[in-house]
Amino acid sequence: MNRIVSKEYFSEKVAKIVVEAPLIARSRRPGHFVIVRCGDKGERIPLTIADADTERGTITLVVQAVGPSTTKITALEPGEYLTDVVGPLGQATHIEHYGTVVCCGGGVGVAPLLPIIKAMKAAGNRVISVLAGRTKELIILEDEVRKHSDEVVIMTDDGSYGTKGLVTNGVEAVINREKVDFCVTIGPAIMMKFVALLTKKYEVPTICSLNTIMVDGTGMCGACRVTVDGKTRFVCVEGPEFDAHKVDFDQMLMRLRAYK
């Protein structure tokens, strides 16, 4: 049982939950995720760790209420408990000094992007973060991202905040004005696909996180199969991050539609 320390809402269906998990807090690295279960018969929900506090022994999770299980998790209040929190799982992000790194996130994808932004900055990179959402209300963790970025670009579909346009417009504007050495993209699969197409055109190495297709998180169910460089890979055990220029996004998008 893991006690919920605090909870706040970013929007009606997106909540930030801080959970007691001291062992995970000490061992997690950027890119890692956990499996969360609410109730003895609850589904196994994979959630990327957005932050950790080793002194308090807590981890931060961002949960979007989509189905019954995630709705149940977001309904929990501080002082209540998650039945299980297992992790850290997956492969950690490879961090090194690249030079100028563009980190672009869409919607709740900013949550798993935040620890990568922090690590990239700590490694001495110039970090430019591009945050995107349909509206101003869907831009999350902006203050935290600004603390660890040299520059933050905000893009909204409706122009209600920042610059009107898609995340790719923001990324391309940066590439056109200065040399970009590396790119990290996390968000909806369709967003990552078009970021990958853009950065491939400009020959900017890019990694993406395919956490949206994970189900059980251990490689047992096979639901997270993706094709990378012509080979079948399992996102939850071999990822969640892969070379974005080698991912078959069209196949992944087709398989994601099955879960609707």
Q: Would you give an account of this structure?
A:
With 260 residues, the protein is of the alpha/beta class. It folds into 2 domains: 2-89, Beta Barrel (Elongation Factor Tu (Ef-tu), domain 3), CATH 2.40.30.10; 100-259, Rossmann fold (3-Layer(aba) Sandwich). 27% of the residues lie in helices and 34% in strands. It contains 8 helices and 16 strands. The chain has helices at 22-27, 68-75, 110-122, 142-147, 167-177, 189-201, 235-238, 249-256, and strands at residues 2-11, 14-20, 33-37, 45-53, 58-64, 81-82, 84-89, 100-106, 126-133, 151-156, 163-164, 182-186, 206-209, 225-228, 231-234, 241-243. Strands 6-1-2-5-4-3-7 form a 7-stranded antiparallel β-sheet. A 7-stranded mixed β-sheet has the order 11-10-9-8-12-13-16, sandwiched between helices. Strand 4 and strand 5 (58-64) form a beta hairpin. Helix 5 (167-177) runs parallel beside helix 6 (189-201) and helix 6 (189-201) runs antiparallel to helix 8. It is globular and about 50 Å long. The relative contact order is 0.13. The model has no long low-confidence stretch (mean pLDDT 89).
Helix/strand layout:
Layout: E1 2-11, E2 14-20, H1 22-27, E3 33-37, E4 45-53, E5 58-64, H2 68-75, E6 81-82, E7 84-89, E8 100-106, H3 110-122, E9 126-133, H4 142-147, E10 151-156, E11 163-164, H5 167-177, E12 182-186, H6 189-201, E13 206-209, E14 225-228, E15 231-234, H7 235-238, E16 241-243, H8 249-256
Parallel strand pairs: 8-9, 8-12, 9-10, 10-11, 12-13
Antiparallel strand pairs: 1-2, 1-6, 2-5, 3-4, 3-7, 4-5, 13-16, 14-15
Helix pairs in contact: 5-6, 6-8
